[in-house]
Structure formats: structure tokens, C-alpha cells
Amino acid sequence: MPIRFSCLLCAALLGLSHCKKKEVTPDDQLPSATQTGQNTAGCRVDGIPWAARVEGLFGPKPISAQWLKSFTTGKKQLSLLFAKETDDSHVHAQTRLYFFVPDLRSAGTFVLDQPANPQLASSNPAYGKFTFGKPAPDQVLLTGPQATGRLVITRFDSARRVVAGTFEFTAREAAGTATVQVSEGRFDCQF
Length: 191
Prior knowledge:
Elements: H1 2-17, E1 40-45, E2 48-51, E3 53-54, E4 63-69, E5 76-85, E6 95-101, E7 108-112, E8 127-132, E9 139-142, E10 149-157, E11 162-173, E12 179-190
């Protein structure tokens, strides 16, 4: 009996030694809240620091900001995409934050509390989205009436092409009960 117990204990310890804790690295620390077009973005995701970054030579840019005229509405729409594309050992690896503002004319506060359908590109209200890219398929969580938030644009300079601000929101899975809490968000981008 003691030999069998020892074998089970050794097997359990060996199994635990292969578990890898997901890491929060210095690269995940929140960037300073600036307004000069430094192309930075960060927040806390469920209380854990998250910063936009992409590891490796190939992959998407960690920050994409676009202010373009809609073909259907004729209004200038703002789209912000912040990506964290890291190896799976990092907390919140393969995740993305996205914001859409349908008619951006100046700095201000945009409440994220209306139902949105990301499939309908130009007919949405202002909304926020958080996407977990792993495990496949993507898990998409959106702001809406039961998962609200706000995006505050503190600087919008169309001449220098700089947009900066803060954000916070809760997002909910459309067909489920999963939620994510995003807080202390800040961004400073060129578009």
C-alpha cells in the first residue's frame, strides 16, 4: 500500500510540475495617459493589467485607429482596435478591444449602452467589444443595454490626426452569460 500511495503522489507532483501559470509581464503594465499620438493603449481586464502589443515580426499592428467617411451615412466614423497578440503563457493572450463611434465630430463622452451588431458595419450606435481569440472559435463580448460603459475622447485633433481618451465598460456574450470587466482604460493614437 505505501508503494502505491508513493507512486500516485509522484505522478500528481509530476503532472503539477508541467502546469504553467499565465504571466503578467512588465509589458502588460498600463501606459501613461498621454495625448500626443504615441500609439499606446491599455486597461485592466477583470482587474489584471492589459496593454496593446504584438510579439513577433508578423502579425497585426497592436493599434489601429481610423476616422473614415461612411459610404452609407456620409458621416465620419471612428474605429479603434487594440490587440494583444502574445504567446499563450501571457494572461489574456490573443485578445482584442474594439470601439466604434458612428459620427465623431469632436471630443466628448460616448455612452456604450445600445444594442449593436458588428456584422452591420455602418448602422450601429457607439459600442465596445472585447474578443478572446483562444480557444477557437473567438468569444465575442459586446456592450449593450445590460452591459454598459463609456468611451471618453479627451483629444480629437483632425489636423494632427491624434485621438486620445479613456474608457471603461462591461461586455457580455450575446448568446451566453459570460462577461468581462474593462476598467482604467486609456489610449493615445494616430489615425
